[in-house]
Amino acid sequence: MNAEGTTASERRQQGMNVTLKVWRQSNASEKGAFATYEVARVVPEMSFLEMLDVLNEELMLKGEEPIAFDSDCREGICGMCGLVINGVAHGPGKGTTTCQLYMRDFKDGDSIYVEPWRAKAFPVIKDLCVDRSAFDRMIQAGGYTSVNTGSAPDGNSILISQDKTEEAMDSAACIGCGACVASCKNASAMLFVAAKVKHLNILPQGQPERRERTSAMLQAMQSEGFGNCTNEYECEAVCPKEISVSNISFLNREFIRCMVSRTGLSPLITQE
Length: 272
Prior knowledge:
CATH topology of the largest domain: Fumarate Reductase Iron-sulfur Protein, Chain B, domain 2
Largest sheet: 5 strands, mixed
Number of domains: 2
Number of helices: 10
Order of helices and strands: HEEHEEEEEHHHHHHHH
Strand order of the largest sheet: 2-1-5-3-4
Mean pLDDT: 90
Distance between the termini: 61 Å
Number of strands: 7
C-alpha cells in the first residue's frame, strides 16, 4: 500500500490514461494527418498492440473506422508489427518488436505519437500499414540457394566450423521487419540485404551463387528506391534482433569481390 492508501492491485485496476496521436491515412494517394484519441484505464501489463485493440473496439462501438495496423504472431518473430512510436522504430527499449512493447514502459498521462514506416519504398496502404513487398522482391532476386544439396542427412554431412555457423545464424536472425529502413534518414535497406547475403554467402551451400547473389540483391535494392547507407548505425540501434552493422562491411567487401571478379582479377582477392 502506498501513501495514498491504494494497493498495487487497485492501481492496476485503475490503469493509466494516455493520449494517442495516431497517423490516419486512407491510402497511398491521399494525404494523411494525426488524429488524437484518449485511452483510459490502460493496464500496464498490456502490450502496445493490445492497447490498440482496446482503442479499436471503442472506435467500432462508436461507429468509427478502426485504426489499421499490421500484426501476426505477436511473439517478436514474424516482423509484421512495424510502428514508429515517439519517433523510434518499434518504440522504446532495445532488441524488441512493437508486439513485445508493454504499456509499463509509459507513464500515466503520456502523449504517444504512432506512425507508420516512413520510406518511399514502403508506400502506405492504410493508416499504419505499409507495403513491404519490396523486401520480398529483393529476396526473390537472390536471397536463396537454388543448388540441390540433397536431403537433410546429406546437408548435415558438410562440415562447417562453429564460428561460421554462429555468424550465419546471427545474420539469419533478421525477421525483415523494416525497422532499419524506417530509422535511416536515407531509407537504406543495406542492413537487411547484408544480413540475407551474409548468412548464405559464408556457408558452403551458398558458394556456387555467391557473386550473382550479391550483385542481384544490390541491384534489386537500388531499383526498389532504397537509399544509400548513412554510416550512422541507426539501423543497428533499432533492430529488434540486434543485427550488427558489421554485416554491411561484409556486404561491401562482397560487392568489391564481385566487381573485381568480372575484370578477371579475382585471384587477387582472397576468400574469407
